[in-house]
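Suppose a colleague, Dr. K., hands you the sequence of a protein chain of 350 amino acids and asks what its three-dimensional shape might be. Before reaching for any lab equipment, you can write down a predicted structure in token form. Begin with the sequence itself:
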Amino acid sequence: MVDGAAAVDRVLGEFLDEKTHELRTVDVTLHALARVAREAALGGGKRLRSTFAYWGWRGVAGPGAPLAPVLPALAAFELLHAFALVHDDVMDDSPTRRGRPSAHVALAAWHARSGLVGDATGFGRSAAILVGDLCLVWADELIASAGVPGDVVLAARRVYDRMRVDTISGQFLDLVGEASRVWSLDRAELVTRLKTACYTVVGPLLFGAELSEYADQAVKRAYARYGMAVGEAFQLRDDLLDAYGDPAVTGKPAGADLRRGKPTPLLELARTMADGRQRTELERELARGADAEPGRLARLVRWTGAADRVEEMIADRVAQAHAALADAPIEPDGRHELARLARTATSRAA
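The predicted structure, expressed as tokens, is then:
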């Protein structure tokens, strides 16, 4: 997609300018709400979901199809993602996102600067939930503004709604996993499929395919196979970056998931592969909770061989994705670009 991210950002910027003005006309204080929502949507990020949605559409519609009518629907994925990240940071109590204060932290600081009374931290969390809700509503508005027939939008919305239900289901299971005494690798992988693969790759691709009006079942099957493989590999890379990434590059604290004992495939593999001594030391460090040392946890996980196994799993899923594309009845440029995305989305440093 030539200048795809720039096109998405342009549509988002114009839309958010309009929505910010609307809120300010209600009450000038609502500018703070709109500003944080705008920063959540436009403040960096890889634009992966809108990119996959674009190639899901373009792979079927072809290079000559006009982009302008579908662009608002593609851009809506970035507002949906802003909603998810803002709420995720509240649930995880994450202080930063993309190297900057998370929405709830920024709003707590605004509370303090504005001379408001009461608990600034609690205000920040509550206000951030509203920011996420607002982004979700605005995403729906953008989809509705797409210049395609109503029945086409409805078909795409069915995919979009299914994807959102899968994402929320995965997020709930993720919370249950953290609170459970016993979890399993199978359930950790189910969370990965629901929370990340369906949301990041499968859903956007199928959404884009529906917008094209011409996608047949063979295309949808190929997109689903490719998307599940790339989406799982994407999350597995995220798990490794949490443990071993550079916070200056990832924009997030190192080892946040490990310290909380989040039952990711990486951690569940470490538990499965550990010998008696390794398991004892790993569980002892995990039991320290917030006092656990991220670097030590990461070394203990690597000691079990789990990190190397996850790298193998990533490579295997990328190979599966390429196999899914080989026979997919899509445009050649779509096949080429999706193959490239399979590599870049799963071999990144942030």
